[in-house]
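Pasting as-is:
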Amino acid sequence: MAYHLDEAIKIGEEKFENNYRDLYASRYNKGVYYDWKNDHKSSLKCYLDNEKLLGDLPLKDTSIRITNLLSCAASARQIGEHNVLNSCLEKVHLLTKGSRFEAEVNQTKNQDAFNYYVQIDDTYKADSILQFIDKKQLFEEYEIAILYIKHLIKKNEIKLAKQSIGILDSIFGVQHLPKHQFFYVNLNLEKMRLGRDHIEDAANLPERITTSLHNNYINLINEGIEMQASNISVITSKYMSAVDLVSKYASNNTAIATIYDKLNNVKNISSNYYQSRQAFINSSNDEVLKHHFGKYKKLTNKLLEEVDSEITLDSIDFHSKIIQQKMETAGIKWHTNTGLRDIRSHLQQSEAFIDFYQPTDKYTRNNMFAFIVTRDSFYFHKFTGFVDTLSLQAGQINYTNNGKKNKALYEYLIKPIVPYFSNKSKLFISTDGILNQIAIELLSPVGSKTQILEDKYEIAYIENSTALLSFTKTKQNKLEGNQFALIGGIKYNCIGGEDVIAGTDNPHTSRSISTYLPGSKREIDTIAAKLTKASYQNVVLSSCDATKLQVKQLLEDQKISSVHISTHGFIEKTEENSSNYFKTNLDAQLMLAKDKNQEDHKLTALDIIDIDMKEKELVFLSACNTGQGYYLPGLGNASVANAFKKAGAQKVVATLWSIPDDVTVELCDHFYTHYLITKDANEAMRKAKKALRNKYGPEKWAAFRVMN
């Protein structure tokens, strides 16, 4: 769509002045397109550019300019650009003052402001705006009507709130509004907020909300990949609101369990989408499908060279949606229906599953929720001030080697929920949002590396409940017939220049610095010797042979069942890219050899996602920041490690922060010594870290995590 709008705008600019109505409308429609994608920064730029290009030229159609300015104000409010907001509102005021548009524009402005102040719980300002809103029109806009009810409840005007709920219920009935409609969900949430003493059949509200949201989940989850994270974020925020209200007003653990029974599915999407797509494309005889998939892959490769190209991004999305449509036509589904009963049946009496949720909704994102499931029990805990607490404690230079901060984080994050699993010996932990970057096993009740959480519990990190079910079916790798691929000791400049050698002055040189890594070569040589001694076949790519082309061929080789990559890892996180699915997966990168035939020497998460790696038992990423990436709800981190998981790898070893070259060599040495004996990556990693605990500070070895 953006591509066609750009083409129309380009043609219009060549033929018409900037005050031509249809040219102005095309620029406005481009802003609407970005608003639809929840990219308010891009939409605001479109609306502002439209105003700037118009300048002092007259525009005959005043209504389209008013709409552009009101949309400009709405986008500015969404992202907190208050100076721009006030400027747009002032312009629209001057434009409409004394005109036939004035009353309608004022109503729209007031409704938008009322919406904003209710959402941020500023009751005083919401009340001051409400007096200027025409009460007769309140119930014509369902969203505003529900916010009005929320405002009344906040002010404790119970009688008027009940009357308003009755009016809206009646309107919904007359309009035959479907029960899964979000307006029904939001109204039922306000009924819960009002409390069981004021609403008939209040006890059934959690189940009704859950049923509606689950229907939305099934309908929305099979949308295109660009929309999935947005859809999941909305659905999750509604589930979280329901959980929060039940915990506040009902104290009903059974009702929360009913909600969680469906809620946990929204995390499971990343386990199914890509592998469903791989299987469908691999088995299909549809040449049109394969043509579009080929175009999609070529464009994603091209995107690395043209990272700011909106046309390339829009074309990728276009081909992705065609593939998507063909999957839907073929009846391919990737939503799951894993419930609480399934989770419990896969847990032993000695095990507990801790499932964390951090809402991404901007009004509730400073909270986090934990659901603790055992074979015969269910518990819930809400953490408040979550983002603020982690910003104080969570940087690796803080809690990893600062006992006071480590203990503070333990007391905030672990101590409140310990009673729910204190008699267990094994914990399955599914993190969310910011928690994906925290080494929970390192937290200590006394703030010392001599007494950490992992000393008391065997800890396994899993992505979601689907991964739990898979994990408990195949607890360890087989290794029989396992063929390893080892990639490391890479020469990064193979087109005539020389790499700077790392470690000469500082033996702890980070693997996020673009220099040759002598430790990396020692690392793969050591692992190769261990494999040969244990009679495992192995293929080694090093120096100038470790190009992107060669590495991808190894990753695609079904005979290779384990991969070890030792190199530099990078993550380019920028605010502008954070909301775009394709860009975020482009920003996570591994550096490979650059030669004259293969200029593109960065292996990105976007390159990895669509490689069929179901046969890969282990992928060990011995590089910095491979577990880092912008978090996309339901899809996990847009990281290199998560891309390998999406592609089907059974276990991936990732790093949460930068790692030193020399200590990493030691850790890998210990890991493979134990792995080739135990055939269990989790156990091997625990033993490898334990071997280094008395020798180095945790910041040097605690970054490694096995993703199951």
